[in-house]
Amino acid sequence: MSDFTIDSLHAALRGLSTRQRVIANNLANSETPGYLAGTVSFEDSLRTAMRRGEPKTAAVSQGTSANPAFVNGNNVELDEETVALLETGMRYQLLTQAVSSKYSIIRTAIGRGA
Amino acid sequence: MSMFGMLDTAASGMRTHRVWLNAVSDNIANISTYRPMDEAAYQPRYVDAQSLPGANGQYNGANGGVGVRQILFGDPEGRVIYSPDHPLADENGLVRAPDTDLGEQMTQLMMAQRSYQSNSTVILRAKDMYQQAMQIGRG
Predict the structure, then answer these.
(1) What is the CA angle B96-B99-B100, rounded to 5?
(2) How far is it, in rounded angstroms, from Cα B64 to Cα B52?
(3) What kind and span of H or E run contains B77?
(4) Which tens digit of pLDDT belongs to each residue from B86-96?
(5) Whose CA is closest to B35, among B92, B94, B91?
(6) A81 to chain B: nearest residue by CA?
(7) A94: nearest CA in chain B?
(8) Is A25 close to B115, i.e. CB distance below 8 A?
């Protein structure tokens, strides 16, 4: 079953999940010499894909942070990553609730929901 | 890629920083371990960490983590100090103390502790997220 809402929500959940994994990796490596923090962007691609009416084509792209590195060649900013961790988790929660609501609407339509 | 990859990543961070904390606590515990001149001094331990490649081979992508590459040891000569009353002193009154800088060890202790804490925060957030995902479609 293909549905614009569900496809858009799935694309966003995929992006947020990847971002959270990368943040976990950045925090695990917050003191590793020479480690450069990874970044994830998907919002712009998702917006463009949704305008085209094909949210499934949204891409999740990974990059490397351009923050200046410390003496040991590491550029993980602990506060930035912790805030991003919290924010990404909250946005993920919001989206899972939206997915549940959408499925609840479908259940109502097929006559099995309350 | 495991199903709960974020937990693996955070666990690798906690494991590595625990090894680091162990090394630092050992170094501080042995800061006054004196040895006679014909033996090696207590050698402080240092942890050499490296980031591990993730599923796509990138070091700063998803599902990588961190690991201990090797443990390095300090100078076996240590610091030679003059302490003629020490029972281990040789005929010249010299003993070997470990070449450990307490200030540096305390700084490392704080760094390792903060990183350990941030990885445990990641585990809490990851758990919330996975629980949310498992609730999809329940209500």
Answers:
(1) 130
(2) 5
(3) none
(4) 999 999 999 99
(5) B94
(6) B118
(7) B132
(8) no
